[in-house]
């Protein structure tokens, strides 16, 4: 099933919480206490045509969660496709050993 087409009841039973990222790596690196990645389709847009307004409430929640995590000294990224996610992960773990 593609993202956005999940059955909400199934997702809730699986422990999915709206707004929280797809991946979390609770390892301190680069002065941050963890890495969070929200995975998106390569061509997915986060904002409406005005470039400011989130395209829907789900994206709005994810953006707000990302700002909260960053304010708590976590690193947060949206990754557009698996290759971008891998690059983010490699960069996070390639620098500064704990």
Quick structural overview:
With 98 residues, the protein is of the alpha+beta class. It is 35% helix and 15% strand. It has helices at 8-13, 57-71, 82-94, and strands at residues 23-25, 35-40, 75-80.
Please explain how this structure is put together:
This protein is an alpha+beta fold and 98 residues long. The protein has three helices and three strands; from the N terminus they run αββαβα. It has helices at 8-13, 57-71, 82-94, and strands spanning 23-25, 35-40, 75-80. A three-stranded mixed β-sheet has the order 1-2-3, sandwiched between helices. Helix 2 links the parallel strand 2 and strand 3 (75-80). It is globular, with a radius of gyration of 14 Å. The model has no long low-confidence stretch (mean pLDDT 87).
Task: Summarize the topology.
Elements: H1 8-13, E1 23-25, E2 35-40, H2 57-71, E3 75-80, H3 82-94
Parallel strand pairs: 2-3
Antiparallel strand pairs: 1-2
Topology order in helix (H) and strand (E) letters: HEEHEH
Total count of helical runs of at least 4 residues:
3
Question: What is the distance, rounded to the nearest whole angstrom, between the alpha carbons of the first and last residues?
Answer: 37 Å
Work out the oligomeric state of the chains in this entry.
single chain
Estimate percent helicity.
25-40%
What is the rounded Rg?
Answer: 14 Å
Task: Show unreliable segments.
Answer: none
How would a crystallographer describe the biggest sheet?
Answer: 3 strands, mixed
Which strand order does the major sheet show?
1-2-3
Shape: globular
Provide the residue-averaged pLDDT: 87
The structural class is: alpha+beta
Strand count: 3
Q: Strand fraction band?
A: 15-25%
């Amino acid at each position: 099933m593609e993202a956005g087409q999940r059955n909400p009841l199934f997702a809730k039973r699986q422990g999915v919480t709206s707004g929280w990222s797809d991946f979390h790596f609770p390892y301190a690196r680069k002065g941050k206490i963890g890495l969070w990645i929200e995975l998106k389709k390569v061509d997915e847009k986060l904002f409406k045509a005005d470039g400011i307004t989130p395209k829907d409430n789900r994206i709005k929640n994810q953006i707000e969660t990302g700002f909260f995590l960053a304010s708590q000294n976590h690193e947060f990224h949206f990754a557009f496709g698996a290759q971008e996610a891998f690059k983010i992960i490699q960069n996070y773990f390639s620098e500064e050993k704990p």
